[in-house]
Amino acid sequence: MSETTDVTTPDxxxxxxxxxxxxxxRVDNLVKHFPIKKxxxxxxxxxVKAVDGLSFEVRPGETLGVxxxxxxxxxxxxxLITRLLEPTGGKVEFEGHDITHLNVGKMRPLRRDVQMIFQxxxxxxxxxHTIGTIVSAPFRLQGVQPEGGVKKTVQELLALVGLNPExxxxxxxxxxxxxxxxxxxxxxxxxxPKLVVADEPVSALDVSIQAQxxxxxxxxxxxxxxxxxxxxxxxxxxxxxxxxxxxxxxGKIVELADRKxxxxxxxxxxxxxxxxxxxxxxxxxxxxxxxxxxxxxxxxSPISPPSGxxxxxxxxxxxxxxxxxxxxxxxxxTGHQVACxxxxxxxxxxxxxxxxxxxxVAAAEVAGVEVPADKEPAAAADSSAAxxxxxxxxxxxxxxxxxxxxx
Length: 407
What we know:
- By secondary structure, the protein is of the alpha/beta class.
- Helices cover 39% and strands 19% of the residues.
- The protein has 14 helices and 12 strands.
- The longest helix is centred in the last third of the chain and has 30 residues, at 377-406.
- The radius of gyration is 24 Å and the shape is globular.
- Residues 1-20 and 348-407 have low confidence and may be disordered.
């Protein structure tokens, strides 16, 4: 009896988000560039930098939400960590094992533990196959013979996701969008995976169906002990399902924090702008509490992203340092990371001195002034600000002349 207790207790602890268990998934400086080729010889003339240096961890039983504008690299990131795409650089570890460049043969056993729910429930299902054939495909491809037979197991999966087991012999065109998404979820859960990557699982569904699918994912996580990485652009959905949230912009993570901290104290200006666009159902609070921030300009091209901070071309707080120095992803509070030289809501954060010192040193580097490593943060900030003032003034004049020329 004592041996059984020793074995089961760690597993139960591991399934709790935020526990001290080792990460189930670890991503380190992940990069994916799609080459652009031209000419008869198909020479590479550039690259689309879809994902350009992502680092994060996902612990067992946790739900990590990933949000951002269309084209920021969310879906590409999902396909990279499930190894449906080959990374250009970086590392992906699953349960402590490096799976970054495993070949097809070595990846096949791993497919049992890592599954993906695709965004479009219409194109992700083969219209020529019955639902029974689609959901039973993982058993056939992995050579798994479930207890009780394949048909019985598939019917149990259909019942688990809220479908009628008698739908076994029907075809995808006989189902609605919400039902098709449930079929995709059943297929992903067939082999009882440890990690499920859901790429915008409710974006193609009606609002009423979205709530049903989101609640279904929550119930399945509690029942099966699943770990989720959920990609979405709907901040309301992400807030409901996630434990932690990562905000992406132009191939990079600009903020990563606990759900509550992110929504109550967003630190990156881009996150603040996204949250300001969330509709408020109460008309009395709409104007006073949620002043919408309208970002200027368009999202830059991932073929040639801006230097320094990639958000500086649309940021109302951008200064000279933002155009030249890329901000690192620093932890400003307990579990709250942000990549910004001028973070929002950081006045009450304990490690703020570290942020000031980092920004001060970076500003001094831009101005060509050496700041001693042992200098106090406040003094470093004063000296670097004074040194960088001429450069910033010159940059402001240049920007003004550019605007006049554009007009």
